[in-house]
């Protein structure tokens, strides 16, 4: 599979106007930032995709839905090329990494399929930041060595790699010096960080190093924790360090022992309960974001009822639910007792319905309280209303806080907001 460097050398004449369309997750976004950083360093002009001569689509291949979105985007770009509106189409990312050769036959109008970049353990290449200036994603490791039966990511991303602590501290110091206020620590499984390079789970150690060097950065947020890799030491660091958001994103995927085994999640029902209790004790005001899958092959009504009761009782603050997607080359794809789509979907609907009630109640409990909010932007057509996030809102996936302020505010400002109204997922309030 070609790399972006190969393509550059061979086909991209200097000074070309290049733009990227990034699909998929925050980890893919960091890959796009690395690609653009390299293109810029090599003299190419980075512009918005709708002004570009060469458009890179950074694809996602996680589940069927994501693949469809990627294919539709490729088709649109090939059509634009046919109309002479753009000169070149480059397909990068997970879909290219996984199916590049087949797609090359299917889409002769595409100029190149380039695989996903390999994470460099010591030296992170210069990135061109695609997020707003006040927050950034920091990818600390790539791929994962868990083998969840429903997931194709390890096959796409290859060997698990952790960056060195020095490399991450260097990147975070640069972001801090640039005035970034929030960093989101990402990977496929950030809680496995260091198990290769340091032969032990080292996320807690990394966080202790990061809090020592940051000045402008006020929030460090952890995304994509793997339940059975969450250590007591990590829970303590999150609970005790003021600059680490009291927020943990930890996909649980299910709760019944039968399905946790079928998913190969390496954790039991009892261990999951104990882990949640530990987190709740250490961070009584903390938020837990999690996701569940409905309809894994073999999931019975009993398994699902157990999951439904668990979600009701645990009252997670943030929940996402996915229907099981049969992924080529995964263990679960070959399992018998595939669950009909209709049942998968109705189970997802009932879980989300339960969660909407829980989420509204939790949101309501913030009325009358004061929250620290990071301002993201001014609300369109409004003179006094801004949109921000609290430490309980991860970018792009959680809710927002609508902030009324007579004083002009700008992106990156932190303000104390008295919450006056609550909605299903969002809050509203006034600057104190
Ligand atoms: S932890 Fe499991 S679901 Fe997540 S990327 Fe690894 S194998 Fe996939």
How would you characterize this protein structure?
Strands 6-9-10-11-12-13 form a six-stranded parallel beta sheet. The model has no long low-confidence stretch (mean pLDDT 95). It is an alpha/beta fold. The protein is built from twelve helices and 18 strands. The longest helix has 24 residues, at 341-364. It folds into three domains: 4-115, Methylthiotransferase, N-terminal domain (Rossmann fold); 135-364, tm_1862 like domain (pyruvate-formate lyase- activating enzyme); 370-431, OB fold (Dihydrolipoamide Acetyltransferase, E2P), CATH 2.40.50. The chain has helices spanning 4-11, 26-41, 64-82, 94-106, 153-157, 165-177, 203-213, 232-240, 257-262, 269-282, 301-314, 341-364, and strands at 17-22, 45-46, 54-59, 88-93, 112-113, 135-139, 141-142, 161-162, 182-186, 219-222, 244-249, 287-294, 318-323, 370-378, 385-390, 401-404, 414-422, 427-431. Helix 6 (165-177) runs parallel beside helix 7 and helix 7 (203-213) packs parallel to helix 8 (232-240). Helix 8 (232-240) links the parallel strand 10 and strand 11. Residues 144, 146, 148, 151, 153-154, 188-189, 226 line the site of iron/sulfur cluster.
Concise structural overview:
The chain is of the alpha/beta class and 432 residues long. 35% of the residues lie in helices and 22% in strands.
Main beta sheet: strand number and arrangement?
6 strands, parallel
Proportion of residues in extended strands: 15-25%
Determine the mean pLDDT. 95
Helix residue percentage: 25-40%
Q: What's the gyration radius in Å?
A: 22 Å
N- to C-terminal distance: 55 Å
SSE run: HEHEEHEHEEEHEHEHEHEHHEHEHEEEEE
Category by helix and strand content: alpha/beta
Total DSSP E strands: 18
Given the structure, what is the number of helices? Answer: 12
Identify the CATH homologous superfamily of the largest domain. tm_1862 like domain
Q: Which kinds of small molecule does this entry bind, naming each only once?
A: iron/sulfur cluster
Structurally, how many domains make up the residues? 3
